Structure formats: structure tokens, C-alpha cells
Amino acid sequence: MEEINGLLLGRDAAVRLLTLTGPGGIGKTRLGIEAARKAGSHFSDGVAFVALAPLGHAALVVPTVSRVLGLREAMGVPSLEVLRQHLRERKFLLVLDNFEHVAEAAPEVVDLLGSCLDLFVLVTSRAPLRVRGEREYPVSPLAVPDPNRMPEAKEVAQTPAAELFIERAEDASPAFELTQANAAAVASICWRLDGLPLALELAAAQTGFLGPTALLSRLDQALQAGGARDLPERQRTMRATLDWSHELLHEPERELFRRLSIFAGGFTLEAAEDVCAAGTVEAEEVLVLLGNLVEQSLVVAETSPEGRTRYRMLEPVRQYALEWLRESGEEDEVRRRHVRRYLALAEEAEPRIKGHEQVEWLDILEAENDNLRAAIGWSLEAGDAQTAARFGWALSMYWVMHTRQDEGRLLMVQTLSQADGLPSEMRAKALWALAACMYGSRDDERLMAVAEEGASLFRRAGDRPGEAYMLTMWSLAAMGLGDLDRATRSLEEALESSRKQGDAWGSAHMLIHLASVSFRRSDHPRAARYAEEALTLTRQTGDRFAPTSRSPCWRRWPGRRTSTSARPGTGGRR
What's the total number of domains in the chain? Predict the structure, then answer.
């Protein structure tokens, strides 16, 4: 609020045409009214609020403004000239609400500003006016509780989204109270609704007969229920608000809009071009159409400090667009293109996260994790266990490196449960991903069984690298069960095979596990030799994840050389 008033009232460079933009339901109107109320005393000749939503044509904008100001039309004098004469000598603030569907009237607003030098115009619109002198102010959703922390009632109550929800819930039900017992449900409602004020108000209105936990499970229904009677008709339900925006789109924009709903957790321009270009939407048109959707506040563009731009839909908007996708009959085809896109990404990343590009590619996978998870889920829904297994093989080390083992394990268990008729090598790859995610779970007997089956399948398929990896997992299970002799033999066999294949990455990991076995046997000189060789290999590969510098034998062996390149996480880089 202070920022908006600062723009309107700036002493040196006040903004005379300020447009508040954002999706329907984000609170532009309320923000505009409050800004006008606070700034009103600075406009000696007054403030006027003009609701444009009921207008059916841009030609009605100027006559409507005249009527709101109480001006009478003069015979033969255009309405715009009447307004000019009235406002020319006045210091006045004009608030034009819901301008998006009468955007053709923007030149008349510019004309007024050019003639009336003390006139200020505050516009609310889902898209900027795109005229000279305009300053756009995107209205953001309300901040939500931190999704990475266990919700505490006090912290939840202090976030703007929850504060609005609680206020409206108390209006609907005087008995409503935020407690530790319902704080998690309230936080989840705020997350699900992406901090969108209208959605929060519509949901909170149902607390008169639904507690937060029950409401959470019925959010979609709550958003279709009637809101407060003093809301405009188009905002009585979330659907009505979004219908209003959807009707303003041209057909190619509608096609792209619904197809973009397939993305989970955001997307890049390249992904949109790859997945959504079809029919009347050509790949080279996606950039322009996507820009239009951003302008219409149906898609949010977010640029990182490194200059990379990702796009996303607020979740209520995405769910609405997804309904249109399902009704269009295109969903299955768009899903297939989405799966194809993210499988290619996962398989491209698999060798890169083991080398010098590790950090960059892990960041890429992390940014796309929601899409990767969705693509695997859709593959399983379609009964395509082979594609899910390919994802598992490609992403297993990402899951391990980014501590997503529980997620990977769940997905691979589901994959293997559908594995009837799966080629043996693909089953082996799913077993490898499962084994990698099981390691460290202390379920060593199960891990040993999984690794044994996987090693046998890889051996039968003639896949020596795969067999070596599975032998390594088998040895780790044996170590967990205290059988150091069998663990050593299995690791030595895996290392010999890995060296024959020229697999420096795999050899480094096998060597460090051999070092750990030697350390547990108190054979410190052998442990240090293994660790030294492993460190040399990780310097070659650039693998920062290899645990050479973190292993017990390397940290504690008294004769080790001090080296800055052996610090945890450096991967041998100086």
C-alpha cells in the first residue's frame, strides 16, 4: 500500500497513470479502493471510483465516467471534451476498476491525462493498458505459511494469507478459532489456494458449517459456493471470476492456456514450446501467446537472479485450466508430450550429474521435480511401467543426492508392482533405482534381496556396468548386516568390472566403500590407499557427491595428507 501511494504521490516523479495488474480474485479492486482512500487528502478536488465491469463496450467508458462525476452531456459536445473541460483545472484522482475488457478506451485515458495536467488515474486490470506514460504495478498473492516447516499456530496466524482466512472465517462463524490442532489444515488451505485473496474468502465463508480439516478435503466445492452478497456477480464464485478472464482470450490463447495446465510446479518457455505446440498453436507462436497470458495475469513469470525465467499458474487458475483441457479431449496427447519431454530431460541429466556439470544439472532437476514426479505418475496411470523404469534409472542418483529417497522408493515400488511383461533389463533398472533409494533405510535384508535379483537380471542381459552397480548395493547390504568378508568380495568384483568398463565414477564409489570396510577392520593403511585412489578419480570426474572426504577412514586416518581439495563438498576442485 505504501509503495502504491509512494508512486502516486511522489514529489519528484509522481506516476500519473498507475495500473494495478493481476489475476481475477487477487484483490486489485480492494487495493485500489484502499490506496485511493489513503491518498484522497492529497487530491484537493476529489477522488472518483468508476466500476467498468458492467460495461459491454469500450465506447461507454468516457460517458460512464462523466455520469459518475455528475456531468451532463451538452448537445453536440463529445463526452471526452466535457470531461476535459471539467478536469482541466482540477487536482483529481480517477480510479478505473476492471479495465481489461474495455482496453480499446485506453487512448482516451491518455488523451485526458495529456489535457489535464493535475489529473491522476489509478487503473485495475488483468492486463496493462500498454500506452505511453503507464506504470504497471503487478499485485502479488498474499504470502502463505512456510511449506517447509511444521505449522505452528502462532506463525501461521502471522502470515497475510492466513490472517485474511482467519478474519473471514470468524465473520462466517464467531466460534471459529485458530488452534494448534487446526493450524496445519489452515496452512494447507493457504498453500493450495496460493494466497489468492478471493479464493481464501470463498473458502473461509464455508467455515460456518465445515471445520478446516473437512474444508481442506472439499476446497473445490467451497470455491464454487456463493460468496458475500456485496461482491460483484463475477466474483461470487472462483469459477465466475476465471470465466470472466477466459472469455477475453482469443482461441489460440485459450488453446495454450489449457495445455499449460499440464505442467506441475512451473515450466520454461522451451518446455511450453515443446509440449504445447499443436493444432493452431505453432511453436514459434508460443512466445507471443505466452506473453499475452502473462499480461492477462493468467500466467506468472518469475526471473531468477541468474536471469532465467520460469512461468507458472496460480493453483486455482491451473485447476480451472485443467478442466478446460479435459473437456477439450486433448489431455492424453498433451500428457504424452509432457512425459516425452521430461523423460528426455532426465536421461540427458543422468550422466551429467556424475561429473563436472553436477551442480548445474542437479539444480535443473530440482527445479523440474514436480514435473518429473507428475510424468512418472502419469506413466504409471497409463500402465507404462517401462517408461517409469527409465525415469527411475535416470533419476536414482538425483533422488539420493537431493535426499529424495523416500519419494524415489515409493515410485519404484509402484513401478515394480506393475512390472508384468516388463523386459528383464528394464526391471533390473527399476530395481537399481529402488536399491539406491533403500540404502541407508536399515532395511538391509530387503536391500540384499533387491540387489541380488537386479544383479542376476543385469548379468543375464549382459549389462556389466549395471551388474557392477547392483553388486555394490549388495555389498552395502552385507556391510549393514555385519558380513564384511562377503561385502569385500562383492565390492572387489564390482570394482574389477567397473575398471574394465572405464567407469571412473562407479570405480570411485566402489573404492570408497572398500575403504570403509577396511577402516571397520582397523586396516588403516589399506583404507587410506583406497581413499586416495578414490579421491584421484573424483578429481578427474568432478563428482562432488563422492564421499571420499567425508568417509571415516579419510577423516580419522592419522597419516592422511592435508589437502584443501579434500574438503567435504569440493569434489577435489581447487
Answer: 3
| Contact status, residue 566 vs residue 572, Cβ threshold 8 Å | yes
pLDDT per residue as tens digits for the range 487-545: 999 999 999 998 998 999 999 999 999 999 999 989 999 999 999 999 999 898 888 87
Mean pLDDT of 207-211: 83
Q: What is the pLDDT of residue 228?
A: 53
Neighbours of 380 (CB within 10 A): 18
Q: Are 210 and 218 in contact (CB under 8 A)?
A: yes
The 10 Å CB-count burial string (b at 16+, else e) for 550-572 is ebebbeebeebeeeeebeeeebb
Full residue range of the structural domain in which residue 279 is found: 248-329
Task: Pick the more confident residue, 568 or 410.
Answer: 410
Could you report how far apart the first and last alpha carbons of the chain are, in Å?
Answer: 49
- H-state helical runs in 353-463: 358-367, 369-381, 385-401, 405-417, 424-438, 444-461
pLDDT for residue 549 is more than 60: no
CB 404 within 8 A of CB 398: yes
**Dihedral angle at the C-alpha atoms of 309, 315, 320, 324, nearest 10 degrees?**
50
Same domain membership, residue 287 and residue 216: no
Average pLDDT estimate for 431-450: 93
Which residues are CB-neighbours of 365 under 8 A, at least 6 positions away?
345, 346, 349, 353, 372, 395, 398, 402
Q: Which of 237, 258, 283 lies at the terminal end of a domain, its last residue?
A: 237
Are residues 98 and 52 in contact, defined by beta-carbon separation less than 8 angstroms? Answer: yes
Q: Averaging pLDDT over each range in 10-14, 250-254, 292-296, 567-571, which range is the top one?
A: 250-254
HEC letters along 308-358? CEEEECCHHHHHHHHHHHHHHCCHHHHHHHHHHHHHHHHHHHHHHCCCCCH
Averaged confidence pLDDT in the chain: 88
Residue 198 and residue 322: Cα distance in Å, rounded?
20
Using the CB atoms, write b or e for 155-182: b if 16+ within 10 Å.
ebeebebbbbbbebbeebbeebebeeeb
Residue 551 banded pLDDT, cuts 50, 70, 90: very low
Residues 14 and 105 in one domain: yes
Residue 442 host element (H or E): none
CA dist 429 and 438 (Å) reads 14
